[in-house]
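#struct-pred

JT: dropping the chains for the assembly here, can someone run the whole complex?
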Amino acid sequence: MPSTLLNDTFLRALLREPTDYTPIWLMRQAGRYLPEYNATRGRAGSFLGLAKNPDYATEVTLQPLERFPLDAAILFSDILTVPDAMGLGLSFAAGEGPRFAHPVRTEQDVARLRVPDIESTLGYVLDAVKSIRRALTDAEGRQRVPLIGFSGSPWTLACYMIEGAGSDDFRTVKSMLYARPDLMHRILEINAEAVAAYLNAQIAAGAQAVMIFDTWGGALADGIFQRFSLHYIDAVVRRLVREHDGARVPVITFTKGGGLWLEEIAACGVDAVGLDWTVNLGRARERVGARVALQGNLDPTVLFAPPEAVRAQARAVLDSYGNHPGHVFNLGHGISQFTPPEQVAELVDEVHRHSRAIRAG
Ligand code: CP3
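RK: done, full complex below.
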């Protein structure tokens, strides 16, 4: 049965079409700040046990939507499933970040690296996409909100694949970049092919928009960012299927710390650019004109301030963008695990309320 979207505000804003209000979703909206997430994670045994089980992934994807009137759902998974599918051996030690048992360090490691077969290695993600689409849709085929699929950028994946874990200074990956740019380009080319195949498989399974997380692009020098991160985001975007079931599938890219390169990022063929909180949205809009929609960009730590301050800062972000189509409200990075959930309710309410007021003049 073809589904009809009850709320397509998010997709319309990404395509810079007029909307009655500004849609909002939050990066990491399903996660540890929600007690119900921690309960499901406890039953699953671990984060990977949760992410690799489509029923649990569906359950936690829907949790924030039960609490708050958010305008989009995002697939519950992680960017590191792709290097895991490449055989690097992902684990999450309790209280620590991610770790790979087999990081990519030598010429031999690079020579062994392959684009994984998506269906056989990441089938659990595609099953989760299908299951979430079903859970968002009622018996009459009416879907509450659209579903976002995602991947890490080729560069951000390479950071974890080479470091073998998170890093403060990216010494190992940057050393390889400067010492052996040929090896780095080889890894990034494989990653770009893998990411494109992965996102296209998510789109075929039912993802209605996709987002590329370039979390560590902003750690690169000017000139290096363009050649080692943006070039490969461009290579992914050029390979993406942009229409599915007769609907346009918008593409968002987000480089944390990428405000400096906004014009160049906006030229890579995406529909929308995510921005962190260091950028003024109004000035950003002047720089890119109507070429792309913008997503962002409240500082996530605002959610620790009293409700009135949360509301005032939400209005400041909306006012900075002004009364124009093409804004999707979000945080400038993922929500903190220590955020009180009630504060998210205040934020979502104020974004909906104040954006309607802006449109009413
Ligand atoms: O936004 C969503 O709600 C969807 C789920 C999602 C997760 N990770 C779940 C997750 C998304 C979109 C991601 C992306 C991701 N993962 C990024 C890019 C975006 C960003 O935040 O910068 C990165 C760099 C990762 C890698 C990663 N995953 C790290 C460094 C960690 C450990 C640190 C941390 O924040 O816990 C994870 C684990 C992870 N991914 C958790 C969640 C909810 C917490 C795991 C837990 O439950 O213990």
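JT: nice. Residues 27-32, 41, 47, 74, 76, 78-80, 97-98, 150, 166, 213, 215, 334 surround coproporphyrinogen III (CB under 6 Å). The chain has one domain: 4-280.
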